[in-house]
Amino acid sequence: MIRTTNRWLWHLVSVVIVGALMLGIYQASQSINYNWQWQRVLPFIVDTTPQEYRAQGDGTAVINPDNSITINFDYSDDAQHIAKYDERLVQQGDLVFEGDVLARSDQWTIGPVTLGLWVTLKISVLSLFFAIILGLVAGLMRISHNPVSKNLAFLYVEIIRGTPLLVQIFIVYFFLGTIFELERFTAGVVALSIFTGAYIAEIIRSGIQSIPPGQMEAARSLGMSYPKAMLYVILPQAFKRTLPPMAGQLITLIKDSSLVSVISITDLTKAGREVISGSFATFEVWFVVAGLYLVLTTSLSWGVQRIEKRLASSD
């Protein structure tokens, strides 16, 4: 009972500390004399602005029996017809002029920030898929007894891990992209896959080498070939051990994907910059962008924790 009480007390202390930090941030934001306008950010996430139907010329409004609107133009035999709407702003026989709002329809459209989030998610998933394949191959080559395979994998890992991702993106886009005629999105996926694959290769290598050599010897003594023993005995055990560092690398991949904005891929980061240039809501937009990245990484972290618990219970 005492331990439980102490635990709740420490939780309360944590809440107080976080609250004090938030209060300090709020007071600091007030001191910079910034006018916070969060409502200006919402349309860039989900735009609920009603669609307006405007008159295409001068004429007279006619309300038909089915409640549709017809505008008979003064100097043309053509007519403008509006069949469906949610709010009507003209009455029977009203004179309208070009540009007047005749009716409105409720609607919602996806804003640029949400579209950028979708691009970030798509490029991260594709890069993750190819990075795992590339990392698995390179990791197996690293522990191979073939000097050629081992040297090539070592060279790949050291070069990629020893150079900045931003430089690699430029090289892939401007050099390889020119040679192979790669689109921006494809170049971004290639650069992220190559970069992340090098780190995954080292994670897989360390995971395999952490398995006692007796596991391989036992599998071989049962008549398994080396590939089968690796596939059915070694890799499943290594997967459990490498799951936490693998999850950390995948979270890093999502955050690193923001760098593809330098080659004009409209991901979440670039969408945020474009919204700021039009709304001037600098702080609000960056806080929203950071929050969306946090949602992605937290969701991935939660999913990995669920997988870890499943694997732990299956032992």
TrEMBL record:
<dbReference type="InterPro" id="IPR043429">
    <property type="entry name" value="ArtM/GltK/GlnP/TcyL/YhdX-like"/>
</dbReference>
<feature type="transmembrane region" description="Helical">
    <location>
        <begin position="182"/>
        <end position="201"/>
    </location>
</feature>
<feature type="transmembrane region" description="Helical">
    <location>
        <begin position="9"/>
        <end position="28"/>
    </location>
</feature>
<feature type="domain" description="ABC transmembrane type-1">
    <location>
        <begin position="117"/>
        <end position="304"/>
    </location>
</feature>
<dbReference type="InterPro" id="IPR035906">
    <property type="entry name" value="MetI-like_sf"/>
</dbReference>
<dbReference type="GO" id="GO:0043190">
    <property type="term" value="C:ATP-binding cassette (ABC) transporter complex"/>
</dbReference>
<comment type="similarity">
    <text>Belongs to the binding-protein-dependent transport system permease family. HisMQ subfamily.</text>
</comment>
<keyword id="KW-0029">Amino-acid transport</keyword>
<feature type="transmembrane region" description="Helical">
    <location>
        <begin position="115"/>
        <end position="141"/>
    </location>
</feature>
<dbReference type="GO" id="GO:0006865">
    <property type="term" value="P:amino acid transport"/>
</dbReference>
<dbReference type="Pfam" id="PF00528">
    <property type="entry name" value="BPD_transp_1"/>
</dbReference>
<keyword id="KW-0813">Transport</keyword>
<comment type="function">
    <text>Part of the binding-protein-dependent transport system for glutamine; probably responsible for the translocation of the substrate across the membrane.</text>
</comment>
<keyword id="KW-1003">Cell membrane</keyword>
<feature type="transmembrane region" description="Helical">
    <location>
        <begin position="285"/>
        <end position="304"/>
    </location>
</feature>
<protein>
    <recommendedName>
        <fullName>Putative glutamine transport system permease protein GlnP</fullName>
    </recommendedName>
</protein>
<dbReference type="InterPro" id="IPR010065">
    <property type="entry name" value="AA_ABC_transptr_permease_3TM"/>
</dbReference>
<keyword id="KW-1133">Transmembrane helix</keyword>
<feature type="transmembrane region" description="Helical">
    <location>
        <begin position="153"/>
        <end position="176"/>
    </location>
</feature>
<dbReference type="InterPro" id="IPR000515">
    <property type="entry name" value="MetI-like"/>
</dbReference>
<dbReference type="GO" id="GO:0022857">
    <property type="term" value="F:transmembrane transporter activity"/>
</dbReference>
<keyword id="KW-0472">Membrane</keyword>
<keyword id="KW-0812">Transmembrane</keyword>
